[in-house]
Design goal:
227 residues; mainly alpha; 8 helices
Length: 227
């Protein structure tokens, strides 16, 4: 039976220990904390450097998913986790605004730069539609993992591709990379616990970890340090 992901946030228990193991909830919570921390670091770096490390081509996907999973669906792990999703969305408002403002500093075709704002907005609207219909049709799970990992694997790939296209990487933060990697990593472990039969998440989660650690390794070689 598919999980109900449209339950109002205030009707959810603070922490759903009836349907999820305490160990899995703790691991998932740590992952959520690392992702919120990653966004906080990213916001600080944008303010300081006027450069956005989130790949411009996929930023609308992340923002669209968070919009849907903050206001239309909620994680069935509990109200506390729902507030973590909302917190990430609120930080992402500034990140997406900054993508529109500074995104063209990333490597991209000159002709594409002329239409980048329109692309970013259309991309955001598309992923709102994707995330909503994916969940509404019963294709997602209670934490939005199936759709979230589709987006996450694109982010991980785009981060790595962007890194190889930019020789000067002083604008890239190892702290942000570690927070992002650990956030995804802990959530992946929790997904293994919650959905042991879900090979789709296992594939994408493992792929994200490999690409994210590759990103950190390349950045470490350029910066000469691990953090």
């Amino acid at each position: 039976m598919k999980e109900i992901i449209t339950t109002p946030l205030w009707d959810l228990p603070w922490i759903n220990t009836n349907d999820y193991s305490i160990y899995g909830l703790i691991v998932n919570g740590i992952g959520c904390i690392f992702w919120v921390a990653a966004y906080a670091v990213l916001v600080y770096n944008i303010y300081k450097k006027k450069f956005v490390e989130m790949p411009a081509y996929v930023a609308g996907a992340n923002f669209g998913w968070e919009f849907i999973w903050s206001f239309f669906f909620h994680p069935t792990t509990g109200r506390l986790f729902g507030f973590a999703y909302i917190g990430a969305f609120l930080l992402d408002i500034y990140i997406f605004y900054s993508i529109i403002r500074y995104g063209t500093k990333q490597p991209m075709n000159m002709e594409f730069k002329k239409h980048f704002t329109a692309y970013a907005l259309i991309n955001f609207l598309f992923w709102i539609g994707f995330s909503y219909t994916f969940g509404h049709e019963g294709l997602d799970n209670g934490i939005g993992g199936n759709s979230g990992y589709i987006i996450n694997v694109i982010i991980s790939l785009q981060c790595l591709a962007m890194l190889f296209q930019i020789k000067e990487t002083s604008n890239f933060s190892l702290l942000f990379a570690w927070c992002r990697t650990l956030g995804t990593g802990f959530i992946t472990v929790s997904a293994f616990i919650f959905y042991p039969e879900n090979s789709f998440i296992k594939l994408l989660g493992t792929s994200c970890f490999i690409m994210d650690m590759s990103f950190i390794t390349v950045l470490k070689l350029r910066h000469g340090k691990w953090i």
